[in-house]
Design brief:
InterPro entries: Siva. GO terms for molecular function: CD27 receptor binding. It comes from Otus sunia (Oriental scops-owl). The longest helix is centred in the first third of the chain and has 8 residues. The protein has about 90 residues and is of the alpha+beta class. The chain is elongated, with a radius of gyration of 19 Å. The chain has a two-stranded antiparallel sheet with strand order 1-2. The chain has a two-stranded antiparallel ribbon with strand order 3-4. It has a domain of about 60 residues: Herpes Virus-1 (2-Layer Sandwich). It has 2 helices and 8 strands.
Length: about 90
């Protein structure tokens, strides 16, 4: 709890209350993104259309933090963390 400017107790900070009402924009295409969808690598908000699922660790990544591997198995999306370990 915090004490407000008027001396009364606040249950949450005013900035947090205002941040809940603001919609987030996708870092790739600037569409409205769900606040739950964030890149596991850079923590930027991404919409469902721009999110990619890593084939190795199954984490959600954005297009900037992922690479596409066109190997013998076929097309695989890899996050930056998993792409380091792929030969």
């Amino acid at each position: 709890m915090l004490i407000g400017h008027d001396g009364k107790l606040l249950r949450r900070p005013p900035a947090a209350a205002a941040a809940e009402k603001v919609s987030k924009a996708c870092s790739s295409c600037v569409r409205t993104a769900d606040a739950k969808e964030a890149c596991s690598q850079c923590d930027q908000f991404i919409c469902q259309n721009c999110s990619k699922l890593c084939s190795c660790c199954n984490t959600v990544t954005c297009s900037l933090c992922s690479t596409v591997d066109y190997g013998d198995v076929g097309e695989q999306v890899l996050c930056n963390g998993c792409s380091i370990f792929q030969v």
